[in-house]
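RESIDUES AND SHAPES:
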Amino acid sequence: MTLPTACLRIAATSDVHMQLTGWDALHDKHMPSKGMDRLANLVFDARGSAKGGFIMLDNGDALQGTSLGDICVDSPDEHPWPAVLHALDYDAVGLGNHDFDFGLSFLNTVMGQASCPVLCASETTNAITCTTSFTIIKRSLPCSDGQDRLLRVGLTSVLPPQTAIWNRRCLDDKVHFEGGVEAAGKAVSALRDAGADLVVLLCHSGLDDDIDAAEENFGAAIAAKVSGIDAMILGHTHLRFPGPDHTGFQGVDAINGTVWGVPAVMPGPAGTELGLIDLTLLHGENGWQVNEHNVRRSAVRSGDAPNQNLFDIISPVIDTARTHLSKPIGTTPEHLNTWFSMLRPSAAEALIASALSGTIANAIAGTGLDGLPILASVAPVALGGRTGPDNYVDIPAGPLCERHVAMLCPYPNTVWAAVLTGADLYNWIERSLAFFNPPYGDGAALVNPDAPAFNFDMLHGMEVEVNLETPAAFGVDGHRIRPDNSRIRQLTYLGRPVSAQARFVVAMTSYRGAGGGNYPGIGPQTEIVRTQVEMRDALRAAVTHDLPSTIVPGVQPWRFKPNQSARRVIQTSPVAAGHLSYISEFDPQLLGLDESGFLQIEVTI
């Protein structure tokens, strides 16, 4: 007997990061290939062409990421994201780690206005009032035998438990999250007990090339260890699946879009792609089961006009943001850019270091820490990476305005500090140097593509000489993998070697001070100085010279060991082609643009 069949289409967005429009607020220009106002066209097309049932989902990290998101935090007007969800008729949304960046009150207020269920099965403290662990939605599906049959689709969502650490500055241990595998297992079991015929997991986590459930990206671990999941939406890493980003991963079919046999999709971030999973279902004596699947990603077309309804929702926020971002705050005597921050420290990082260290100098004045040397741990704020070839700081010498502050401080962090020893600092820098590739030889990429630039923290106030002729002591996840290796050839403070017992006050962001990035030296016993000073306020004060400067002028925090004579390849902004004089000592040779639009330059280090 031939069983009747039916179709279900699952469409999803992930990591929208308040890219509600193609307007690039930081550079005041339009980008035609991203934004929810253009992605809306794909949603309507997917809904209209679905052969059976249709479900629309979002996988989190929607509330933070652009200046539009920042403006909405203090705006008296209603937040546009719930209106966008309503306009596109979302059926459910999950939460991501960055949705907590502005605190619980903001999250509960905004997402409490959503017209669809907001899901989070990870939280264990009941502090989030806008969410439920799971929900079941119903669809009447037309079947191949002419009958309509009811399908109960169970939906749940999980996120990295590290979210509580990354957002300690605003959550302050009020929220705790269970591990992804554990949370998913409980929610899926509860959904099956409640009568769900199918279960779709919103997994705000990516894929690692293993099934380690304890790591930040546990998507593969869930697929391998939790039974009863029929489809997964992945995210968080800003990669794409199916596709070459995950080729060769254990248990992963990067062509057909399965993870340990479970159909899964990870759409591109910032409203660039819609993820689609088409399921062909069989109905028999034991109910519904998945017979076939088709997984794909649909990209925004650059020629598409914005959807007028969504544009009308978003445009008032754009007007408010444009006015705010144009406000002047001071001047800079130097051209601030990060085009070559993988080759040497830039003036942009030096300005941030001044803001951090000056804030901490004020905070510890008159305390028991007064008199200890103050350093600043700073990573390049924008250095291409997965965000693309436009993701660089480029601020000409002259007037500075609020747009430039947002460019230099993209995250809502506060200023913290940690009291660390010289031994801690050695490990800190070694962990940072995982940013660079192993010594593959001439023509190899200088930077490890798996190492995000926001974890390349170097210590301003110190001087370190870097030797890349040895593999890194730490992995990109912050775990020591080669105990006997060292890339530090020399580490000095004010011209003298740093002793293991020496004590320093290291200014940093609250993200780093709370344990973000898994840096050695940060733990339960570390003496932490917390301030309530927002990074952007600190930067404004540094620009207007309202902060003391503790970083010795002219001290270069890091440099490559001289006379290594290796030829390496860097990726940077195409705009940098006109500024090669900045790196003349590296003998730069242009190689042209790669397929992602980055300018490739061969250099000698």
In short: The chain has two domains: 5-321, 328-560. The first strand starts at residue 5 and ends at 13.
